Amino acid sequence: VQLQASGGGLVQAGGSLRLSCAVFGRTVRNYVMGWFRQAPGKEREFVAAINLSGNTFYADSVKGRFIISRDNDKNTGYLQMNSLKPEDTAVYYCEVDKIYWGQGTQVTVSS
Fold first, then answer.
1. How would you classify residue 98: left for phi > 0, otherwise alpha for psi between -120 and 50, otherwise beta?
2. Which of 14, 22, 45, 57 has its CA 20 to 30 A from that of 65?
3. β-pairing, 105-110 with 9-12?
4. What pairs with residue 96 in β-bridges?
5. Widest CA span of the chain, in angstroms?
6. Given pLDDT bands bounded at 50, 70 and 90, which one contains residue 29?
């Protein structure tokens, strides 16, 4: 199973980015898919998740700004990040069932 995360980059505060996570070897519709992030010197933390029914869950810090979604036909998950803040700067990781993890994609938000 492979997860390929992409879409990170440098953006100014208030801007938007969309992360993608292509999954190979598993059908995403059958699993819980999520995003975590890790900032320098901090522990990895939960960001968002989407379950088999399409229900979504968010950390309080991103609620109302981030949107997690899934395209079953493309077997890809997404994290739309709006109104970005400098404190959102981190390496973002996608995961499936907390067993399979992507390689991480860097998001840097400048003030």
1. left
2. 22
3. parallel
4. 33, 100
5. 39
6. confident
Strand partners, 69: 78
Query: How far is residue 35's CA from residue 42's CA, in Å, rounded to a whole number?
Result: 16
Q: Report the DSSP pairing between strands 17-24 and 76-81.
A: antiparallel
Tokens of 44: 């990895």
- Count helices and strands in the chain by DSSP H and E runs: 0, 11
Look at the block and give the residue holding tokens 């980059």: 9
Of 30, 107, 99, 40, the closest CA to residue 70 belongs to 30
| CB contact at 8 A, 58 and 66 | yes
Residue with tokens 């069932």: 97
